[in-house]
Write a structure and sequence with these properties.
The complex is a heterodimer of chains A (115) and B (109). Chain A is mostly beta strands and 115 residues long. Chain A has no helices and 11 strands. In chain A, the strands form 2 sheets. In chain A, strands 2, 4, 5, 6, 9, 10 and 11 form a 7-stranded mixed beta sheet that branches. Chain A has a 4-stranded antiparallel beta sheet with strand order 1-3-8-7, with no helix packed on it. Chain A is globular, with a radius of gyration of 13 Å. Chain B has 109 residues and is mostly beta strands. Chain B is built from no helices and 11 strands. In chain B, strands 2, 4, 5, 9, 10 and 11 form a 6-stranded mixed beta sheet that branches. A 5-stranded antiparallel beta sheet of chain B has the order 1-3-8-7-6, with no helix packed on it. In chain B, a hairpin with a 6-residue loop joins strand 4 and strand 5. The radius of gyration of chain B is 13 Å and the shape is globular.
């Protein structure tokens, strides 16, 4: 498998459930990101990890909890979500930080629906 | 505040040329990206500009004017497969990446 993979591709969960999104990159990159994409809105950067260390947390509610066990894997743990959290969640990786000019490679995303 | 403006939607004809504009107001500037996103798919990188001027890559070119806070993406010899959303993103002085909402481009035969 090459590039950036995400599982599951679709997820429906109730507001009281706990679930996790998984991202894996096979590109040898050092930085990984979680984004939220809602219709007709800009991409919202949620978390950034560089060399497994979290470098950004853009005021994301605590019901979203990231985990980066190594440079190739990134998780987003979800609990007690709200219907407005329904969106496409994209994972991305880059050789260095995107803010320093490195292009990002995106996974196909997880379409999350909170009922 | 920080802001990126792009047209919401544009329509063009197959074989023609289209220019997608992006204007930005950010606290400093360290580079500008363009990404393409087909419906239901992941964004893919198109170009990166950090200096003023035009960067050409095949049918696609990207222009930057830092003094005007302005960039455009120029697509030539349009093909039906170019129907997609085009996302502009700017890196500010803190190296934070700020995204525009994207321009949906519709190509008609």
């Amino acid at each position: 498998e090459t590039g950036v993979t995400q599982t599951p591709r679709h997820l429906v969960m109730g507001m009281t459930n706990k679930k996790s999104l998984k991202c894996e990159q096979h590109l040898g990159h050092n930085a990984m990101y979680w984004y939220k994409q809602s219709a007709k809105k800009p991409l919202e950067l949620m978390f950034v990890y560089n060399f497994k260390e979290q470098t950004e947390n853009n005021s994301v509610p605590s019901r979203f909890s990231p985990e980066c066990p190594n440079s190739s894997h990134l998780f987003l743990h979800l609990h007690t979500l709200q219907p407005e959290d329904s969106a496409l969640y994209l994972c991305a990786s880059s050789p260095g930080l995107a803010g320093e000019g490195y292009e990002q490679y995106f996974g196909p995303g997880t379409r999350l629906t909170v009922t | 505040g920080q802001n990126i403006d792009q047209p919401t939607e544009m329509t063009a004809t197959e074989g023609a040329i289209v220019q997608i504009n992006c204007t930005y107001q950010t606290s400093g500037f360290n580079g500008l990206f363009w990404y393409q996103q087909h419906a239901g798919e992941a964004p893919t990188f198109l170009s990166y500009n950090v200096l003023d001027g035009l960067e050409e890559k095949g049918r696609f070119s990207s222009f930057l004017s830092r003094s005007k806070g302005y960039s455009y993406l120029l697509l030539k010899e349009l093909q039906m497969k170019d129907s997609a959303s085009y996302l502009c993103a700017v890196t500010d002085s803190n190296y934070q990446l700020i995204w525009g909402a994207g321009t949906k481009l519709i190509i008609k035969p």
